[in-house]
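During data preparation, a discrete fold description was generated, as reproduced here:
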Amino acid sequence: MRAILLGGGIALLGTLLGTRLAIQLLVARGYGQLIRDDGPTTHHTKRGTPTMGGLVVMASVVLGYAFAVLLTQTRPSASALLLLFLFVGLGLVGFLDDYIKVSKQRSLGLRTKAKVGGQTLVAVVFAVLALQFPDENDRGTISQGVSFTRDFSWELPLGLVVVWVLIMVAGTSNAVNLTDGLDGLAIGSSAMVFAAYTLVNIWQNNQSCANHPGPRCYEVRDPLDLAIVAAALTGACFGFLWWNAPPAKIFMGDTGSLSLGGALAGLAIMTRTEMLLLVLGGLFVIITLSVILQVGWFKISRGKRLFRMAPLQHHFELKGWAEVTIVIRFWIICGLSVGAGMGVFYAEWVAGA
């Protein structure tokens, strides 16, 4: 438990203090956000706001975990290291996208094929490596099953496991990326879901089959170490939110949104709560569905729009809602989703017990 508190606290301080320095450096170099002309006109005032703040989040999480295990003299686990690999790997893909935008002063960064290719490469390497390191009880960092609050009884062939991980990683990272359109919306929502996963991991550790064997124990590897990473992610998000809250003084960019989405997918896969993520991350699901529905309806109706603009948060902007109002109300939706997901997680264990 001490390591969890240390990881979260160090990461929180990292983004609280580090983001201030990052703002100064990015402003000095002129690395400001470019705004699309086809978006809400209120966003034009944000032009030039420093971006790529996700680098501070990434560094803070890694340092938070490293110092937590160092100060408590615990050994890093394969699960935590692989999760950090996924987190940092997708962050680097996002960084390339952001850097091309600011260095070439255009709203388009990586080409779609290059961006998808980068996400695919990181996700596939993560999946392949995660299947290679069984512990002394022959438990892998990920399983071959599909899960809700624990694995279902049937398993996927190894090839389909890699495909399933790819779908999870690509879907979740892009969902957080789509949500990152208003000041504080994505980072604040991510903080809530990561906090939930911190509690899930602590609970799974307390009810682990390794420590408390029984019919309802959890076959999750290294849950306490995953809790340290989840706590570091939570702390880093809250610290960054201080600077990213409306009106934002810095944006996290694709560097932050892709990395945070990847971390969410990794936690869901490693804790055997893949389908539960749809409930915990209900806000991300709603926003992603709004884009899918908008594109589908546009094609079916030959040019008509279901929403004034997608993702959904921009629809309400064009209806005249203030940005801070949208952010707070969407945070409420996210909080309700997290509460519902935690309720389902606990109810499943109570029913089974």
